[in-house]
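Dear colleagues,

For the upcoming journal club I promised to circulate an example of a predicted protein-ligand complex. I picked one with uracil because it came up in last month's discussion. The inputs are reproduced below in full, followed by the predicted structure.
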Amino acid sequence: MDSGNTYWNDRALLEWQVELGVTDAILDAPVDRYALETAKPKPKPVEKPAGPPPVPEAVEVDAVALARADAGAAMDLPALAVAMQGFEQCELKKGARSFVFSDGQPAARVMIVGEAPGREEDRAGKPFVGRAGQLLDRMLDAVDLGRAHDDPSRAVYITNVLPWRPPSNRTPDKAEIAMMLPFLERHIALAEPDVLVLMGNTPCQALLGRTGITRMRGSWVEVGKIPTLPMFHPAYLLRNPIAKREAWADLLELNARLRG
Ligand code: URA
């Protein structure tokens, strides 16, 4: 093919068309320019830099401060129970069947503080109803005290440091105790007992900041201004019946104080 010849032929044709008045070069078929518009390649999305997505800043929750605010806002015992039940910072709540608040008579002169619900208490939703609780009832009865006593001056009110059962009845850890302490302190302030009895090391840790029940039992101390008697926990007495002798002496001491 003679490409030079084609060029001069094409050019002559074009010049002839220009002479005829052609101003625009068009095709044999019409062009839909709207379709062309939409068919335009879309702009490429801006590529994000490679690497893991940014981690949102961790918000530290001060569980003790939250507990203190919730507890302080409760103006009576039913409101305190509602506030505690709605407190979501303690992981024990997730594994427990029941919320265990208290039993006995809130107006009683004696307020007993135990550790935490066990299996029976978790089932019943009441503190001290298992074997240790039954022993506690017999001990109290021996000095004419009881949670259902008809004489209000001989009634007792019972609660625990924690309202939820720890898994496998393990001892509550210090963080759990510290987190629930504002509720316990408010509980005591609202119940206004004349005397507190602390059953075992956990309530001593919570309210006195120390443990060593073997040395501490039987000697009066104060929580705020309230006379307080640490005693062996009844579960300990079930495992060590020989220690019932000291527990009996402590009960007599409690009774003498109440009658004195
Ligand atoms: N032990 C406790 O300390 N509290 C209970 O309620 C039951 C067992």
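Two points we might discuss: The first strand starts at residue 103 and ends at 104. The mean pLDDT is 91.

See you all on Thursday,
B. R.
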